[in-house]
Structure formats: structure tokens, C-alpha cells
Hints:
This protein is an alpha/beta fold. The protein contains nine helices and 13 strands.
Amino acid sequence: MKRGIIANIGKTKRIDSNHVSLIGNYSQTDFNYYILYWDKIVVPTNNIIHQAIPNEEQLIKSGVLERPIVQFSSWSSQIDSSYDIFLTAQAIVANKLIANKSDTDWNIHQIGEEVIIAKEFQKNYNSLKVELFNCLPVPLENVNPDVLLEFKAKRKDELEKLHSSIDALYLEILKSPDSNLQQKIAKSELKKAIEDLEKVSLEKFLKTGKYNFTTELNLNVKDILTSSTAGFIIDSYTHGINFPFISIISGLASMVSIKANKTISLEKNTDKLKLSYIANASKEGIV
């Protein structure tokens, strides 16, 4: 199954419980991250304000990027019902894609510190916040998308191994909230998958950075967890647990952080294990 994301047009920050602000556009490196790690990227636009993104036409022609247009009657009527027209467009498109069963696993994705959902599309969830700090290598700036896509095709095995090892980590966390988890993580394929991708990335690109990657796991999924198991997981991770490890390729310290959490996501995500993704550039991981 392909991995698809519905992203916002830029970085959004919460001002207070009723207001958010678009604080900046994504950098070229942010889009390098999106292109490298996701099969399909959807960035909704709207009929009122269109913001172009780096290499937009080139990415659309390559089949990686889609820019569906959401129609609004006016800015003022929309802003009364939600605090950001771009977030509303993202939620509308995400709901449609998630509801439409296809060969792509769709998830909402934002760059920043937290996922922010337009008010009228929010639902509260008990979740497990799994953060991978300083883990995902990304080439820095000024990489032609065609070069990145060529690298992605050539190194599809390494990328698939990384995705698979992250998914396996999630399942291990959910079934083994015990004192042996750190040892299990240390022996998992995740560390080697990260190192393998670091190695080939450094061979291809002059300079790379690291991205932090966070997934909110849904603890209300009945097909995966019983209510008693979910309660045990919440109790086990209420105060959070951190598991550091060091890459032998870059020498940089990485970390897996797990914490029980209450979050918001789309109502359409009720039956999905992964509620949302968050990523941001690490300030430490430049090689």
C-alpha cells in the first residue's frame, strides 16, 4: 500500500484556544523531506488565496504532488466558522481521501510542534505520542526534485525498510509496555534502517540534516486494542519514557520518546491506528 499525506500550505502555530496563525511557508528542505518519505503528497489550495510551493509544476508533472482546489464562498464567512481557511481546506480534502478506500494509506501531516485541526472537523482521542528525535536524514536545500526522485527510486529498499521498521516499532510499543521495551527497541531493525539510509544519503548528497518525526497512535481502535489494554498502555506511559541511541554512521544521538496523550484529530480517523504525523527539522542533526 502506498503512503500518502495531506499537508497544509505552511507552518501553523496556535496563538490561543480560539486562534492560530500561519507563521511561515515550508522551506525547500521541508519539501525534500516530504518528497523523500511519502509516495503521494496532497497540499490543498482554495479559490480565495493560492500560495505556490517550491517546484510546484515540476512535482505535479512527476505525479508526486496534487493541489486540489477547495471552493469557499468568501473569506469572512469561512473565518467565522473556523480559525484558518487553509486548515479547513486541509481537513475537507483529508476527510474525503481517508473515507475513500484506495491503495493509499492517507494521513494528515503538518510541519511544526503540534497538529492543528479546523474546529468543525475535530474529534478528541486518547493517543500514544511516539516521537523519533533526530532520526530521519534529509538533504538540505537546493536539490532538484528529479535528482531526489531518482535517489528515492534507487534506494526504495532502504526507504521501505525504514518505514516497515517504524511500523513494527509502533506495534511493539502497543503490545509490550514493559521494562524490556528499551532492549527490544535497541535490538529492533529501526536503528540499522536509519543507519543504512544515512549511509546512502551521505554518499549522494553533500549535506544532510535530520528531521524529528512524531506519530499520534489511536488508542481507541477496537480492532487492535481492548479497552483494558488501552487503559494499561495509558497508565504505563502517562509520565513518558525516552530511549536514546547513537548512530554509528553520523555519530549523532537519536531518541525514541513515548507518552500517553490526549489529542485531537479528524473524526474520519476513528478506525485508523495512525491519527496524524508531525515533523520538524532538528537543530542538531546536520552532517
